[in-house]
Amino acid sequence: MAMRWWLVAALASSANLACGAAPARPAAEAPSGTTPARPAQATCPVMGETFTPSDETEYAEYKGVTYWFCCRGCRGKFLAEPEKYLQAAAERGLKLP
Ligand SMILES: [Zn+2]
User: pTM of the entire structure?
Assistant: First the structure.
């Protein structure tokens, strides 16, 4: 008798587990932190100078385009007002990125 109750309880609790909270798997995330292909030469959108990007070079993606910066400060300035710098760069005839 006691065994039967135990069995029912066990079945019930396992059924609960099965139909309960199905673990919502987070969608497969694109690996973050992958460095975009580094160009041989890049132009800093803020300073307007051409330089050779290295592993340490700061970059940022804006509207699907990767921009490279001569220093961290320029990256911050650019991200604060990207349109301003892109427009200024266009007026100066800079080739970006
Ligand atoms: Zn800079």
Answer: 0.63
